[in-house]
């Protein structure tokens, strides 16, 4: 079997930066005996989150920020804001508690937050195309009071009619990292017999990557670990390997080794 990697795959710049900052926070917390949390799962990848927990970085339920029961615990804590960002009121609340905040918001997300706030100031009705429950979208909403989310073209049309007398500005949740991986997948699909997409099942961009792989017409699988691969994968002469923007390098390496028979 020949295994070919997509030219662009795996962790994007924003997620890699967030993971690096979280690991540094774990070291700082250990030295100062301070608990370390991430505001929600740092990465949409269960294995990566588990690896951080092993280093002492625990996941903080976002609702705990406003809980009186958590006030004392957060006062002496370090909280890492994930790459998706968070609404401004979260930063204010943590600052009030005296929490040490490590802002790992992706620079591209910060750009969207600032753009949304600027458009609101200019009098635009801001519409965010994306999943309203996604952390990135929720963060942007916090910077754009009155903005609405459109999860489908039908919702977008309804929103346009609703605000027909206002100038409307559209901001997409989809970041360049996603399109870069999908474009690279297109090139990969043209030269392989089957495709394996590695990444968390709870990762939206990995799910979209998998849908693109299936749309190529090649047999495709979305897995989190090598052990999930079906036996039939070994009947293909060539397999393409790609991964979502929150997938650690180690997981990609593990799957590649498995396919090559180096880690049965």
Please provide a brief summary of the model:
The chain is 44% helix and 18% strand.
Question: How would you describe the overall organization of this protein?
Answer:
The strands form three sheets. This protein has a four-stranded parallel sheet, with helices on both faces. The protein has 264 residues and is of the alpha/beta class. The mean pLDDT is 93. The protein has helices spanning 13-32, 46-54, 71-75, 88-97, 107-121, 135-143, 153-162, 176-189, 204-215, 249-259, and strands spanning 2-5, 36-39, 57-60, 78-81, 100-103, 125-129, 148-150, 168-172, 194-198, 220-223, 238-243. The relative contact order is 0.17. Helix content is 44%, strand content 18%. The protein is flat and about 60 Å long.
Query: Largest sheet, described in full?
Result: 4 strands, parallel
Let me know the number of strands.
11
**Helix proportion:** 40-55%
Q: Tell me, briefly, the overall form.
A: flat
CATH hierarchy class name of the largest domain? Alpha Beta
Q: DSSP strand (E) fraction?
A: 15-25%
Compute the CA-based radius of gyration: 20 Å
H/E topology pattern? EHEHEHEHEHEHEHEHEHEEH
Overall SS class: alpha/beta
Mean pLDDT: 93
* CATH fold topology of the largest domain: Cobalt-precorrin-4 Transmethylase, domain 1
Number of helices: 10
Strand order, sheet with most strands: 1-11-9-10
CATH superfamily of the largest domain, please? 4-hydroxy-3-methylbut-2-enyl diphosphate reductase, catalytic domain
CATH second-level architecture of the largest domain = 3-Layer(aba) Sandwich
Distance between the termini: 14 Å
- Counted up, domains total 3
Low-confidence spans: none
